[in-house]
């Protein structure tokens, strides 16, 4: 597996290159946006780990231009922890979004999950059976029927579809879609999932969003 790392901070880059290579991955490291775009459009990578605050061209623009021609998975690794940034990253087509500072074990786990899934044929159109989400057109359909979602519901469903069969904790969902720090006394995730289910599952015969008691939720096919 070959990974492109776009990171301008030398100590972080050296740390990641060493750790990823020790775990059997081939890593190409670049330190600015133009080099990241050049490498990403000329080499067939299994994953791009992309910082947002790159010199020369920020990660948003690199991501946008990569998506014009390339469908390789992308993991944003950045200090940008605003809710709007995480939602923007997911809507641009990122597979994951990890905030600095981070633990290497968590990064490696997320990398392995993405690599196991492999490349998707169309990173902008996410599907499971009769449910289809078009990231660029912001359109959701099930069984040919259009479903209208709020911004947060759309981001939540995008997260579920990009990480199908992976059990997602309430804390992780809250970090990626709402706030970085999840207050366990609030039920924002439960309420949002319930509303999403009412739109994409309840009117249809087979539900896709399932509760994993004591942990969180998973989107998958169950016969």
TrEMBL record:
Pfam families: Response_reg, Trans_reg_C. The modification 4-aspartylphosphate is found at residue 51. The keyword Cell membrane does not apply. Signal peptide: none annotated. GO terms for biological process: regulation of DNA-templated transcription. InterPro entries: CheY-like_superfamily (IPR011006), CusR-like (IPR006291), OmpR/PhoB-type_DNA-bd (IPR001867), Sig_transdc_resp-reg_receiver (IPR001789), WalR-like (IPR039420), WH-like_DNA-bd_sf (IPR036388). One of its GO terms (cellular component) is protein-DNA complex. Keywords: DNA-binding, Phosphoprotein, Transcription, Transcription regulation, Two-component regulatory system. GO terms for molecular function: phosphorelay response regulator activity; transcription cis-regulatory region binding. Residues 123-221 form the OmpR/PhoB-type domain. The keyword Cell cycle does not apply. Residues 123-221 bind DNA. Coiled coil: none annotated. Residues 2-115 form the Response regulatory domain. This is Response regulator. It comes from Chitinimonas arctica.
């Amino acid at each position: 597996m070959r990974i492109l790392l776009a990171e301008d901070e030398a100590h972080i880059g050296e740390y990641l290159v060493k750790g990823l290579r020790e775990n059997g991955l081939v890593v190409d490291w670049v330190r600015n946006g133009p080099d990241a775009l050049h490498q990403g459009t000329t080499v067939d990578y299994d994953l791009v780990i992309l910082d947002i605050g790159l010199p020369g061209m920020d990660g948003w623009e690199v991501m946008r231009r990569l998506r014009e021609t390339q469908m390789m998975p992308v993991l944003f690794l950045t200090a940008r922890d605003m809710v709007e940034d995480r939602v923007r990253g997911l809507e641009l087509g990122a597979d994951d979004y990890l905030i600095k500072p981070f633990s290497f074990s968590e990064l490696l786990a997320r990398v392995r999950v993405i690599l196991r899934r492999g490349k998707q044929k169309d990173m902008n159109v996410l599907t499971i059976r009769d449910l289809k989400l078009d990231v660029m057109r912001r359109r959701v359909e099930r069984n040919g029927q259009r479903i209208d979602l709020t911004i947060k519901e759309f981001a939540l469903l995008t997260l579920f579809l990009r990480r199908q069969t992976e059990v997602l904790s309430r804390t992780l969902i809250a970090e990626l879609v709402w706030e970085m720090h999840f207050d366990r006394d609030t039920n924002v995730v439960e309420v949002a999932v319930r509303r999403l289910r009412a739109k994409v599952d309840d009117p249809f015969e087979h539900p896709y969003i399932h509760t994993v008691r004591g942990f969180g939720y998973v989107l998958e096919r169950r016969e």
